[in-house]
Amino acid sequence: MMELLKRFEEGSADDDDAFLGDEDTDDEDEALASKLESMNLENASYDEIWAELTPAQRDKFLKALNDPSSDLAQQLLTSEDFAKQIVEPWWEQPPDPENAPQRSGTRTRYGAPPTLISIPPAALNASAGAAASGPSLLYNIYATLLTYAFVTRYLSTSPLSSLPPGDPEHGEARRLFARLVPFLTERRSTLVLPSLSGLITHLWSRFEPGSMTPAFFALLMRDAARLLRPAAVVAVAAQAPQEPFADHPSADALRALADVAALFERSASSKAPSPASAKLAFYAARIVNTPAYILTALVDEAMARARLVEREQDLDRAPLAEAPKGQTATKPWIQELT
User: Fold this and answer.
1) Where are the domains of the chain?
2) Which terminus of the chain has a smaller tally of CB atoms within 10 A, N or C?
3) What is the number of alpha carbons within 13 Å of residue 161 lying toward its C-beta?
């Protein structure tokens, strides 16, 4: 998404009629092009670029995202240079990459699965006790995975750990996590999301106004569900796996958390982990200690809610906090199971 927005801006700066619109907006578009000429698009953040667009241009860009068949979307997506830069999320890689779909004559590239997170024994023990008596953190974990999917897609980078610390997009990724899931990055935060409805409201309100659509949010919900869903069948290696938990049913969720943790690693000289890294290790331990049927229930709930979100057409507010048929909105499914 970030690369698409930059491509849209570059087209605007070049005064391309297909990007800018009709004659009625010539003066407005000339002003935008003038602003963009002085902006370093390579180093500009998403918010900085978005702030330069008028409401009409924002609407045009979002419509292009929601309608891949439109002329503007095709121009954005079929650029050969753009196609070469896109790296699809690692969790979408098909079993046979050689038969992956092509974009602009270029074979789709997928990121490599991140290295699994290291879970200290103390975190495993603490999480086991907390899982039995403490509040459920599963909605916090799901929100973190949804944010991970968003950052991965909008930066078109996978895995995120491939970004070097000095890269502007590395800083942008950290900034987005701090903005969307502050309970992860703030040391003293004790926020516990109580339900999926609360999770949707929390995240939606933290996106730049007008920058999120129900269709895209639903896609992110499905991404997070895909990562969190335990594998029904796990291939057991003849020898002990090189990575701990490599054959765990929730290995993909653990890989995603490891990828986020890599963004917040401190220098080698620092003895203590960052607050985000410590919380992510605890989240990973909670996943390992949570029965598969509970994780599956959350995933099923999220998939049902994603279908409702996708039908929501009002872009100016969060999707309706509507419970799936047969369930009440006052009692989360996870609480019923635990």
Assistant:
1) 2-77, 121-337
2) C
3) 16
Per the DSSP assignment, residues forming a β-bridge with 106 are: 103
Q: Which tokens hold the place of 162?
A: 């491939």
Could you give the CA distance from residue 131 to residue 287 in angstroms, rounded to a whole number? 10
How would you label 320-334 residue by residue, b for 16+ Cβ within 10 Å and e otherwise? Answer: eeebbeeeeeeebbb
Instruction: Provide the Cα torsion 175, 179, 185, 191; round to 10°.
Output: -170
Comparing C-alpha atoms, which of 62, 85, 89, 228 is closest to residue 153?
A: 89
What token pair was written down for 217? 């949010």
Continuous segment of H or E residues that includes residue 7: helix 2-13
Strands (E), the chain: 102-103, 106-107
- Tokens 């899982």 belong to 131
pLDDT in tens, the chain (338 residues): 666 666 666 665 554 554 545 545 556 556 666 666 666 666 677 677 778 777 777 777 777 666 656 676 666 666 655 556 678 999 998 876 565 555 545 567 899 999 998 888 888 887 776 665 556 899 999 999 999 999 999 888 999 999 999 888 999 999 999 999 999 999 999 999 999 999 999 999 999 887 788 989 999 999 999 999 999 865 555 555 556 788 899 999 999 999 999 999 877 666 678 889 999 999 999 999 999 999 999 999 999 999 999 887 554 455 555 544 444 444 454 544 44
Beta strands in 95-180 (DSSP E): 102-103, 106-107
Give the Cα separation of 129 and 131 in Å (integer).
5
Tokens read off for 198:
């609360």
| Cα-based angle 166, 47, 15 (whole degrees, multiple of 5) | 100
Whether the CB-CB separation of 113 and 90 falls below 8 Å is answered with yes
The structure tokens 């516990």 sit at 192
